[in-house]
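Subject: Protein record for review, amino acid sequence with backbone structure tokens
Why sent: The fold of this protein is of interest and is recorded here as tokens.
Notation: Tokens come from a learned vocabulary of local backbone shapes, not from coordinates.
Attached in line: The record itself begins immediately under this heading.
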Amino acid sequence: MFCASAPDTPEIGIETARAVERLQERRDVVWIKEHAPRAVVQQLLTHATAFLCPSVYEPLGIVNLEAMACETAVIASDVGGIPEVVVDGKTGLLVHYDPAEPAEFEHAFADAVNELVADPLRARDMGKLGRARAVADFGWDVVAARTLEVYRESGATPGALAP
């Protein structure tokens, strides 16, 4: 199954549609194009072997945290803030992205997918570690406490600037 929504550009949307059509000629692939409700996304992630995020730009990668929160192993590129979220070899697999070598990235990414799909027990273990990391390091209570601590350290009073 392949889920994708809101491509960054219309060109990426067209490129993705063509790639999916070619894949559908050879394999049983279902593409959910619509923006799925949160409950549907959670069900899909919870039952997935792996979540794939081949981004070439990603400031943090909230989508990876969402997958990890659903106990799903992540395979992602090593760009932007993704390595701050996904621990390579523990909560998923990171694949090096070099814009000068896109074909190399594509092959390495496919290899990582095949590696993890071939070992569902490893994927399950990564998913469990990912869930633990998402809750322990990125849960809202943790984020709120860290934010409050920054205010305290700066001497500012939280809410003082609010109208």
Residues 36-153 form a domain with the Rossmann fold fold (CATH 3.40.50.2000). The helical segments are 10-26, 38-47, 62-69, 82-85, 102-117, 120-138, 140-154. The chain has a mean pLDDT of 90.
